[in-house]
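Help! Submission page says 'invalid entity' but I think these are all valid:
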Amino acid sequence: MSFDGPARNVQMSEEDARAEAEAGRKIDICNAILGKIAVACLMVISLQGALLLPITVIKYGWA
Amino acid sequence: VTAVRPHEAQAEVEPAIELDVDNPAHKAADRWLLGGALASGSFILGPAGIVMMLVGWLKLRKLQSTGLRVRPWLVTWMGLFCLCDAGINMIGWSVDMLLHDTVIGQTVFGGFGRLVDGGYYMGYNSTSLGGTSFDGEKILEIASVTVLFPLRIAASWAFFRMKRWGLQMMITTSWMYLFLWTAYLIDKGLHFPERFGSTEFGVFGFWAFNIFYWTPFLMLPYLYSLKRKPEDWVD
C-alpha cells in the first residue's frame, strides 16, 4: 500500500530509472544526516527540560 | 543463529529479518524508553527519565545483538525525543496556564525568567489569567497546550510504534510546530527590551536556549524520506 495512492504508470528507460534511484538514494542520505542533527537538538531540548528545575532551585532556591 | 535438526548435524538458520515492534522483548525495551521519555517530559522526574531511557537503549541494543531486527535507531530517537519535547513544553506551559500560583510554577518560571526570558519574570501573575503577562505568549501558550502538543504527543507515540498514521501526523505537527516557532520568535522580538534586557544572559542566553527548537526544519526532509518506504509502516 502506498501513502499517495497507486503509482503513476510512466514508462522510463532503464538508464533513467537507475539515475532516478541513485538521486533518490543520495537525497535520502542527506535527509538522514539532517534527521540526526534534529535528534541531537531534540536531545538538548530534553536535557534542558529535565534539568531546568534542579538548576533553578540550585541557583535561586525555591520560590 | 544455529539449530540442530534430527537429520543434520547442524544447520544455519536465517535470523528473523521482519521488523516486529510488537515482539514481547522489543515491547519490554520500548516500555523503558517510553517511560523515560514521559518522565523526562514531566519536569519533576526529569533526571530519573534520563536513566530510564538509558536502560531502554541498552536493552534494545542487547536485543539487536541477538539478531532480532529492531526499529531503525533514528526513528527510535526521533520519536522519543519528540515525545520529551512535546511533554516538556506541554507540561511547562500548562503549569504557567493553570498552576502559576504553585511553588513549582513560581520556582521554575521565576528561574527561567531571570535566566533566559524576562516575560516569565517581569509582571508575572499580574493579569487576570495569571502566569506570564505578555498577551502574545499567552495566546501561543493556550493554543499549543490545547491543540498542538496533545497532537504531537499522540503522533510521537504512533511514530515510535511505526504506525502509518504516526508518520503522517508527525509531518503535520512538524509544520504546525514550525508555524508556532515563527510566531513565537516574532512575539519575542516585539517585546525585546522587557524580555531580553532584564535577563541574566540577555539575547545570547535566549538563543542558547531557543536555537534547538528549529528541529522541524531539519526533521521534515527526513520524515518525507521515510514516506517513500510505506512498506515499513503498519496501519
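Support: the input was valid. A stray whitespace character was the problem, and the output above is from the cleaned input. Chain A has a mean pLDDT of 83.
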